[in-house]
Write a structure and sequence with these properties.
152 residues; mainly alpha; 6 helices
Length: 152
């Protein structure tokens, strides 16, 4: 018979759900960019392939953009969902990685904010970052610290 587990502290669950929500919002942003021709045109202006027929350039740009977005989405989903479940399990290394990835993301968001083509994309970039920040705050609440002290 399985031993009954003690319920997780609310602070842990307050860290888990924002991590999951930020992942879902990031996926929504990625899917939106796949279907948004303005975004692919924006990417085409960034790449500007030399000495190529405009139709070929557009096809290549859209293929590269779509591939980059799909691979990025898969990596993002796997990484953040794994980290969210490891945070929920009380793994201290997962808490540390969440902080490091958030810091890197916040710096790149600040540095490249003006490159987002519309306000919608800017919002879809800022909201996940704020949710992850909320998760970090929850992970350092006293109730959560107890769980992470015992984690590996």
């Amino acid at each position: 018979m399985e031993a009954l587990r003690a319920p997780r502290p609310a602070a842990i669950m307050c860290a888990f759900w924002p991590l999951i929500a930020s992942t879902l919002i990031s996926v929504a942003g990625g899917l939106l960019s796949l279907t948004d021709h303005a975004y692919t045109e924006h990417m085409a202006r960034q790449i500007q392939i030399q000495n190529m027929d405009p139709a070929q350039e557009q096809t290549i740009t859209r293929a590269v953009s779509a591939s980059t977005i799909v691979v990025g989405l898969v990596v993002t989903v796997v990484m953040w969902v794994l980290l969210a479940f490891k945070v929920r399990a009380g793994r201290n290394w997962a808490r540390d990685l969440v902080m490091v990835f958030w810091l890197l993301g916040a710096v790149s968001l600040w540095a490249f904010f003006s490159l987002y083509p519309t306000v919608v994309y800017q919002i879809l970039a800022v909201v996940p970052s704020l949710l992850i920040l909320a998760a970090i705050v929850a992970m350092f609440r006293p109730q959560a610290r107890v769980v992470f002290r015992g984690g590996k």
